[in-house]
Amino acid sequence: MIDAATFLKCIAVSLVWGATNPFINAAAKKAKEGSIVDKGKKIMVPYAVNQLGSILFYLLLSSNSLLVGPIVNAMTQSFTFIFGYLFFGERYNNNFRVVLGSACIFAGVGICSQASNTNLA
């Protein structure tokens, strides 16, 4: 089981990754026009922030259980959906399926978390 401080760090990393993923996608679409320098400028800032999230994730993994990996990845998927929906108007054919899929991911991570705490000897 992870403590509250570690869980808040997981949320922070997930938020950074989840927020920057739609921005990188939008910047890549806009970068199709213009010179190579213009393309690099449009993508550089969201990519740099995303890489900051990767550094934070590495630091988080170095001092905690490997269980934080699936937790961060599950939350990142949800934050990516939320930010894409709110700021970029990304829509899916069936939002219910996206929410159901996220719920299944969280349930699976919860089951794995609980199983890692159970003494199977």
TrEMBL record:
Transmembrane residue ranges: 44-61, 67-88, 95-116
Topology class, membrane: Multi-pass membrane protein
Keywords assigned: Membrane, Transmembrane, Transmembrane helix
InterPro entries in the cross-refs: EmrE-like, TMEM234
Cell location: Membrane
UniProt GO cellular component terms: membrane
Family, similarity comment: Belongs to the TMEM234 family.
Name of the protein in its database record: Transmembrane protein 234 homolog
Originating species: Triparma strigata
Lineage: Eukaryota, Sar, Stramenopiles, Ochrophyta, Bolidophyceae
